[in-house]
Amino acid sequence: MTEAFAAWRPRVLSVLRFIAGLLIIQHGLGKIFHFPALPAYANVQPMSLLGAAGFIELIGGALLILGLFTRLAAFILSGEMAFAYFIAHAPKDFHPLINGGTLAILYCFTCLYLATAGAGPWSVDAAMKRD
């Protein structure tokens, strides 16, 4: 059974990267293009801190989806998510479940893993032999 899982490891890495990119890009789309519409993102100004985060999520999420410049994009997104946690969530309460920061932590460490593991075989990076 271990061998069967090991054989799928590189492909599952590509799937993880792709799904993480899809989940992150939706935050950027909500902040920048207000789609999907979310009351918390209704008045985001492009030149604000939240607007800058939206651009990072939009571009970084797209790069993760494609698997292009994956290590760099994932590293920047990991830092952005750590920054988001400590700026927006941690001041509210120590516990992530209470302060709403669980997702930011999960994105942070998922992206940190992708920054170290790479894009996987189903990616532009792999097609261009950059990984």
From TrEMBL:
It is found in: Cell membrane. Belongs to the DoxX family. It comes from Bradyrhizobium erythrophlei. The chain crosses the membrane at residues 12-29, 49-66, 103-124. One of its GO terms (cellular component) is plasma membrane. It is a multi-pass membrane protein. Keywords: Cell membrane, Membrane, Transmembrane, Transmembrane helix. This is Putative oxidoreductase.
